[in-house]
Backbone:
């Protein structure tokens, strides 16, 4: 009970700190100054809560009750906590205070994250999205598509270019790791820390067959002993905030109860839950009921992810789950790049903005790949979601799928932009 209370207190303090930060971005009213003062107080209170939470995890969970059986997984979790003994708790409040917050809906700002999507949310997209949709429409954090740590521990320059700090100015970027060897992942986290990254995210949610067949992503959830050993390896060797993105299980949502027991053993800085199971891929609906049932049992800040496509849905989630630390959006943000701006009370995307946004993406990918043909292939993925912004685009959508040459692409895109935009929220 005390742990759940402190998690709720922690989350409220984090969001209050973010609210206080928004005051420094231009709100100098008496109400704004009052928010700033209360935010500073809650940051201090949050630090006390974090220290007490860490004490509970180290003192209360490392000693079994009389007669209690200690499983191998418990021993591994205890070993990680023993190694963490004496380490300062994660500076959540200070970390969240670095995030630019512009949202005005509700009493305190809910943080909006851009989900990691292979082939979509790369550095070209992240920079283009921030350029065209500004501070009000940018994500509070952009999660980069996963990278896998090299087994020989020799970094590949081409892959690391995606995370080069110089190529990622603006809103915070969170690297994501796809791995199954905890010590190797911890080594890679150290490399990313050296680049200046504060948080690193672990991918235990990817449902792609090529990933799960190797026992990575949500495929690791088949064997909970391996999940425990993996997290033990990470937290026994890695420093600083480490978050996790997960699914509910492999076959059915009921599996998450046992999975969460393992997550709760470790000092995970934030747990992003996509309430589907591995077998679903992205089919069917996200299981909000299963998410709601699991949320009170989580001992860390929790972010929701899955089936969010409108500003109304974002607001509904905030109302239903006010203690969330954030909401992560993937496909919905690709389909409507102004989604976060609308949720924060701003205007929908104009045709001029969409034209500039898509043109910059096309040129950016052409430069990145050194080929307009490769850029067109990448742009087709974006158009798969964006074409529905235009009324009566069905015939042009078919042409877009078939074309290969740059001149064909430019002709069809010019025709698409003669169509009216579809009105939505």
Residues:
């Amino acid at each position: 009970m005390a742990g759940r209370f402190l998690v709720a207190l922690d989350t409220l303090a984090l969001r209050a700190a973010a609210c206080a930060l928004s005051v420094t971005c231009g709100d100098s009213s008496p109400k704004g100054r009052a928010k700033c003062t209360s935010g500073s107080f809650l940051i201090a209170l949050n630090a006390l809560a974090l220290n007490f939470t860490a004490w509970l995890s180290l003192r209360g969970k490392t000693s079994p009750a009389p007669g209690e059986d200690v499983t191998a997984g418990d021993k591994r979790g205890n070993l990680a906590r023993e190694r963490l003994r004496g380490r300062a708790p994660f500076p959540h409040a200070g970390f969240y205070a670095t995030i630019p917050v512009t949202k005005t809906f509700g009493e305190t700002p809910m943080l909006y994250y851009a989900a990691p999507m292979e082939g979509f949310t790369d550095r070209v997209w992240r920079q283009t999205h921030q350029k065209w949709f500004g501070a009000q429409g940018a994500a509070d954090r952009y999660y980069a598509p996963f990278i896998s740590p090299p087994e020989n521990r020799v970094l590949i320059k081409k892959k690391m270019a995606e995370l080069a700090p110089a190529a990622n100015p603006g809103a915070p970027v969170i690297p994501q790791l796809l791995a199954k060897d905890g010590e190797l992942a911890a080594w890679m986290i150290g490399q990313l820390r050296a680049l200046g990254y504060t948080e690193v995210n672990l991918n235990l949610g990817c449902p792609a067959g090529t990933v799960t067949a190797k026992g990575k992503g949500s495929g690791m959830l088949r064997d909970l002993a391996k999940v425990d050993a993996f997290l033990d390896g990470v937290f026994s060797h890695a420093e600083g905030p480490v978050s996790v993105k997960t699914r509910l299980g492999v076959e059915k949502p009921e599996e998450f109860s046992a999975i969460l027991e393992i997550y709760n053993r470790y000092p995970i800085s934030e747990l992003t839950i996509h309430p589907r199971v591995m077998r679903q891929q992205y089919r069917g609906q996200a299981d909000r009921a299963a998410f709601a049932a699991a949320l009170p049992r989580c001992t860390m800040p929790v972010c929701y992810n899955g089936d969010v496509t409108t500003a109304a849905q974002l607001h509904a989630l905030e109302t239903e789950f006010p203690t969330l630390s954030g909401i992560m959006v993937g496909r919905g943000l690709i389909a409507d790049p102004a989604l976060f701006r609308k949720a924060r009370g701003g205007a929908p995307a104009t045709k001029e903005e969409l034209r500039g946004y898509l043109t910059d993406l096309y040129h950016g990918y052409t430069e990145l790949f050194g080929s307009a043909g490769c850029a067109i292939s990448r742009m087709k993925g974006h158009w798969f979601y964006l074409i529905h912004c235009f009324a009566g685009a069905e015939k042009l959508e078919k042409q877009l799928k078939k074309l290969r040459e740059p001149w064909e692409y430019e002709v069809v895109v010019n025709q698409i932009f003669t169509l009216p935009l579809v009105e939505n929220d």
The longest strand covers residues 242-249. Confidence is low (pLDDT under 50) at residues 2-74, 83-107. Strands lie at 111-114, 141-143, 173-174, 176-177, 200-204, 242-249, 271-277, 302-305, 326-329.
